[in-house]
Amino acid sequence: MEAQLEPDQSPSLFPFIFAIIGLVWYVGLWSIGLLGCRTGRRRYRMRPRSPLATAPPDSIPGVSILRPLKGLDANLYENLESTFTQEYPDFEIILSVADEQDQALPIARDLISKYPSISARIIIGEEVVGVNPKVNNLIRSYREATHDILWVIDSGVSVAPGTLARSVDLLESPTYTRPPKRRVAVVHHVPFASATEGFLGSRIEEAFLNTNHAKMYLAINTVSIESCVVGKSNLYRRSDLERVNGSLKPRAHTESNDDRDCTHGLAAFGKFLAEDNMIASALWHELDLRHDLSCDVVHVAIGKMFLSDYVWRRVRWIRVRKHMVLAATIMEPFTENLMASSIAAASLRYLFGIPIWLFLVVHHAAWLWVDLDVYESLAGHPLPADRRWWFFTAWCLRELLALPIWFLAMLGNEVIWRGKKYEVLRAGEVKGTSGDGNHGGLFRLFTRWRQQDSHYQPLPSNHSDT
Fold first, then answer.
1. Using CA of residue 388, residue 365, residue 337, residue 231, what is the dihedral sign?
2. Is the pTM here over 0.90, yes or no?
3. 7-21, 22-36, 237-251 — which is least confidently predicted?
4. How far apart are CA 346 and CA 18, in angstroms?
5. Fewest CB within a 10 Å sphere: which of 15, 153, 227, 395?
6. Given this model, what pLDDT does residue 198 score?
7. Which pLDDT score, from 0 to 100, does residue 426 have?
8. Which one is catalytic: 99, 102, 169, 276?
9. Is 276 a catalytic residue?
């Protein structure tokens, strides 16, 4: 009789094991989410003024602020002006454009005239060192910058007046602590988005950046077991960057004759699409240095973004990530709200008989509450009442679109960026491919009204505008 029971009992062992694994996974995700929420509360609800803001200029390190420009980003004037009004005694601003016909030039010149006491100049003309147009735009500014500390900040973001001083505080933080800490090589900032126009894609992007993205970004950087940096706003030292080549191999393993023949510095990252992440990873792995998050956010003004723009933007970065961190990208769907809650609901139903509908109601309410708390920490205020309906709608659509977007991204290797088509290669490198910069196939419907960006065009001659 006992021998007859064993075959009946063995199949039930597998659902039990899967249910336990699912529940452990769910608890782990909540731990990460709550860590991000806690970090947001502790780091961003109070931003003290740095003593560097009023220090004598000769007692602090100088900073070169590099802002690559391309066309008319949303709120471009306010974005650029926010760097002219930094409360820091010693900095210069270098604004760069690839094309002397660029529409951003009149705004840049107007701001330089408005703030004659600020050391600021314009560099016109790119130097092609790779396929990444942002790196090509930046390379001359990078080489001509006066100071070793560089603040590379996108034209689509604005910052508070005390951001630079607080960031330099972190970059110059002492390492003679107990236990000793690795020196800080990169100071970066969490992006906080504001949809300046009421397009659906803009609303969804805003909801994504201010909740799920921010929550995970804060948690990963709090744990700090691996490099995780986005490139909206980063401070680092040129002297550090000149020692790395993007191989991600420790310096002790690369100091050879072959290494001396490699390209170092910013030019080494022109072959990557996500040059910001690769620069941070190189400093982390090659030099064994660390990163730190400032208590400031950078405000991202999201202009006209259709639903198709949002979809293909997410597709682009997932396709880049899968060639850089394949295992993490494969696991990504299981970290999303709907997938995680479905796994947990099935696990709890099997183990404890908890009704699935009841668990899902409680789960989604709690998940939304945490996301709203992260939003409040970064914004410095609760979600305004007149924006709640749009926010909730965009938040729900973001959750529903996450899995279809992931599947779409995993089915291809080509991406569109700044009107050009690229193929993503091993380790996140890219190469240009032929094409008109439009998406085709089954998803052409999404791109019928897609806003087209003009190409980066190399100039026959380079010159500076001072």
1. positive
2. no
3. 7-21
4. 10
5. 15
6. 86
7. 85
8. 276
9. yes
